Amino acid sequence: MKILVINAGSSSIKYQLFQMPGFTILAKGMVERIGEADANLVHNYNGNKHVAQIEAPDHDAGMDVILATLTDAEIGVVGDISEIGAVGHRVVHGGEEFTGSVFVDEHVLDSLEKFADLAPLHNPPNLTGIRAAQHSLPDAIQAACFDTAFHTTIPETAYLYGLPYDIYEKYRVRRYGFHGTSHRYVARRCAKLMGVDKTQANIITCHLGNGGSITAVKEGNSVDTSMGLTPLEGLVMGTRCGDIDPAILFYLADKGYSMDQLNDMCNKQSGLLGISGISNDMRNLAELVEQGNERAKLAVDIFCYRIKKYIGTYTAVLGRLDAVVFTGGIGENNPNLRAAVCGEQTQIGIEIDTERNEAKSSDERLISTDTSRVKVYVIPTDEEAAIAGDTYELANADS
Ligand code: ADP
Question: How far is the CA of 338 from the centre of ligand 1 (A)?
Fold first, then answer.
């Protein structure tokens, strides 16, 4: 069975076509700048890369381009569209309702619309992507896989804020958490690498990309995560501030900042970018730190400090810690950051092996010493494979 995994954003659609059950990637790529005059397609297949200017006034048109490309006589990888048996969609917010991946039906579509105000930047384009795929592939099974689903096991004590209870009852204001597909994937891989069942390990997973979150995974289930009602809470990120005293916002509102300005400041002008005043990209900052730039160093130090603080907190939450996993663009590729976060953590049993940590590799690997009580791993995330796996399971449970 061939499964197409779709991640639709406001102006882009990313795709990967898998041959299941072996998870072989037949092609992957993306349509970018949907709705603009200079929309383009990047398509990777059989070790080749094809880039083209395209017409994509909307998501339907973008999806048609993807399907035409996948079935193209020269650069395509399938003979006929009917070979694509199922489509797995990444959906950011599944609210409290979706505890796992589901087939898309009218009820699911209605619920996603309902959750749009909780994830206004993400759910509407996700929904548009689903509709476009239903339109272009009417015979394929459509599945929705939620970023929030893995976190639906978080207990009330960890998901409720210290606000009046009726705010939760009326508006469902609570911690939802995000990056769930990634946290679940790397936690399962980690248990495999440790040679134990997922129910036997307590793991802290650190997904560190441009957005970042940390999850405490107890015996296979998420029991707490750093992102909250929205992806703004928790770590200091590329451009997001993460945890702050909420009274800062009232204070600044009093000084004349509008809601829009504060929203923009916290989501787009803060974090690594805001502190360094230069860049949200860890690669740029790492170079600047090498050159002695003080503000870049401060930004990176604050970034690492916050991660360390969460690892300490979640160690207490888990009671017993067996492993820490680093993933995401920064977690996978930045040994200095991993060393800074794991330094002086022998008290909780973390000891990094310098040579293992600095080895150049894009494989899953152990980076702690053989005597470290807590194992530390770098595990490249693969959300698309996780979505393909869920979709495959759903499709086969159905038949
Ligand atoms: P997103 O959250 O957008 O998916 P990514 O997971 O791609 O983000 O991570 C982006 C971050 O990862 C950037 O700060 C970037 O500097 C860093 N990064 C990505 N690749 C590398 C690399 N090869 N070496 C060092 N840092 C990297």
Answer: 14
